[in-house]
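Incident review: delayed structure delivery

Summary: a single-chain prediction request sat in the queue longer than the usual turnaround. Root cause was a stuck worker, restarted by the on-call engineer. No data loss occurred. The affected request and its eventual output are reproduced below so the record is complete for anyone auditing the incident later.

Affected input:
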Amino acid sequence: MKYLSYNYKVRLFFLVPFIALFPIISEAQEVQKIRRINPNIPYTFSSENSTYAYLKEGTVVPALSADHAVSYELPIGFPFQLGCDFYTGFYASSNGTLSFNNSFIGENNASYILSMSRYANLTLLAPLWDDLNGNHGIFSYKTEGIAPNRVFTAEWKNWKWYYNASSAVISFQVKLYEGSNAIEYVYNQEPTPNTIGASASIGIYNDNTLNAEAKQLWLNNTSESPVASTSITENINVRPASGQLYRFTRNDTNVSCDGVDYYGQTIINPKGGTNENDGLRIILSGAANMQIRRNGKGQIYNPANNLSYGTTRPYNVPGGTNHGVVLAVGNSYFTGGTLVPASVTEQQLEVVSSTPQNSIESSPGHFVNEIKLAAVKNGLRYYLTVKYVYNFPENDFYMDYTVTIPEGNTEEVKLAHGWDTYLQGDDRGPGFVSGTAPNLVVGVKREPSYEAFEYIGGVPWSGYFSAYYTLLNSNLGTEMTFKNTINPDPNTDNGIGISMNFGKIPGSFTSSNKLVFACEAGDVAPALADRGGICQGGVLNLNSLITSSTPPGTVVVWKDAKGVVVTDPTTVTTAGTYTVYYHSEKYNCDSPVATTVVTHDTSCGICYRPGADTGTEAGFPLAIISTLDRKNHPAVNLRNGALVLESKEKGFVISRIVSPETTIAVPVEGMLVYDMTSNCLKLYNGISWNCIEQTCVDNN
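Output delivered after worker restart:
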C-alpha cells in the first residue's frame, strides 16, 4: 500500500474585531441528561387575587441592587423539590430570575437562550425575566415557619424595568412551600408606570427532564387568568396588578421519578489533566467519543475541542477527521462518530445510558464509567457497553468492549475503534506494533508523547492500524477488519485503530484492552550525579552515576559517543561522552536522554607502598610499643615488647569509635581510630578528624 507520509490538516483562523456588548461567558461542559420511565412530571397553573405584603427582616443581598448582577449560592432553608430533584440552595439575578443548580444572569429572555449548551441542565424560576435593574432597590430572602411546613420568600423590592432607569416600577416575590413543593409569584405595582419597550417572560423551566410538558410552563400575558403552555412568551410588556398571584402546583407522586437512566457527557477525573502530576482527564460524549487531556494538552485531534456539547451532540467528534466506535451486524453499520467503513451507508448507534457523573469515582482515585449503546436490526437489539476504569494519577486506563448478541442472530458482529492522534502538540510520529499476537501493543510515539492500544484479554483483535489518519476508514473497509497496517515514517500524521470479531453466537462477549498515553519509561531523563571520573588503574560503573529510580518495567540503556550501546556499563574504562535513557521493551518507547562526560581522574586510584617481607630475623619484633624508659636497644629483650605485629594473613583491629569528633573529648594530633559512623579509618591532624584515603602507588 502506498502512503502519504504527512498531511497538514486544514486549520482556519479568523480574526474578527468586535465590541463586547455582553459579559464574556466561558464555554462550560454539558452535564448528563436524565431519562426516566415516566418523565412527565406535570405542573398545573392557577391564578388568584391576593394581598401583597413586603418582606420584613429578610437577609439583604446588596450585590443585587445593581444592573446585570447575580448572587452566589444562598440557602433555601429546606429541601425543595422541582421535578424529581431536590435543591437546598438558589441563585438570584437582578434580571428577575431565580435558579437552583447553577447561576444564571441572562437578560435576554428568549427560547434560544434556553437552548444554548452553556445552560444545559438549567432550572429556572422566572417571576419577571427581562433586562431589569435593581439600582436603589432591595433584594432579600427569608424562610419562615416550622418544619415540615416552612415557606421560603425571595423579594425584588422597588425594581426598575430597564427603560425606567430613574425610578421603581414593580416589586415581586417568589414563594416556595415545603412539603407541597408549590411555587407562587406575587406582584405589587410601584408608583412609576410601565414604559413601552419592556418584553418580559413569566414561567418555570426545568431542563433536568426530557418531556416538554414537565420541562416548562410559560404564561402568555399578565392578566388575572393567563394561559400557561410549553411555548415561551417573550414580549410581556404590562406589569401584573398589585396582589396578583400565579401558582404552579406539582401534581405527581415520586413513582414517576423511578427508573432513571443517565446519558450524555461524562468526565473521568474532571480536575485532572492539567500538569505532569494529576494524571489524565478523560472526556466522553454520550456516544463514547473521546478527548484525553494530559499535562494541559489535548491528546486527540482537535486538541482544543473538549467535547463540550457531548450531551446534546453525542455523535460529534473532537475534529473533522475519523474518530469513534462502529458496530457492524452483517453488512449493516452502526456508528458513534465518524469512523465508518468506506463507501457504506451507516446508521447511528442509539445512546442508551451512562454512569451517573456523581457515581463515577467509586472510591477515592478509582474511577469506573460505563457507556451503553444499542443497534437494532431485523427486530433484534444488539448492545455495546464500553467500560472505562482509571486509577489516579496513572497515564493509562482500561477499556472493556462488551457486545451482547441477541437470540436469533445469524450474522457476524464486529467492532472497531480508532481516532486521529495528536501527540501532545506535535501531531506527527511513527506507527509501531510490538509484542506477539494476541498480546500486542499498537500505537504512535514521538517521545515523550505516546498513544497506544494494548490488548489485555478476552476477544482478540482481528486487526490493527497505525498510519496516515485519513486511511482509517478505507483500511477498515466493508470487512470491518483493519489490515495490520503500520507506517513507521516519523513524519506521518498518524491515526490508530483496532478491530474485533465477536462472531455469531448469542451471548455477551468482552475484549479487554488498555489505552496508554505515556511511555512507561516516563517523560523525564535519568538524573545523573556529577562524578564521572575514572580513577587511574580503575573502572567506572556508569550506573552509579544515576540518582533517580528506574521506572518499573524498564531497563537502563547507555550509549557511547558513536551511539553504540555499552554492553557492560558497570566496568567502563574509556573516557568520553555517554548518553543514558530508560527503555520499555513492552511499549517500544524510551524516556528522554541524559548526557554525561567521563574523564580520567589522575588524582585518585588505589595507592599503597609495596610491603617488605625480607630482612627480618625470626623471633625479632617489627614493632614494639612500651611505656618503659628503654633508651639502649629496647628490642633486645623480647619481654620489653608490649605489642609485636608480624603477619601476612592476620589483621589488626584498632579502637572502634562512634563519631570520634564528639566521643573523644581531648583528641591528640596523630590519633588514629576507626569511625563506626563514617565507616572509615580516621586520623586527627591536630585540627580535625578526616578519613584516610588512598593515593597513587608509591614506587620510590
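Verification: The chain has four domains: 33-257, 262-516, 533-605, 652-700.
Action items: add queue-age alerting; document worker restart procedure.
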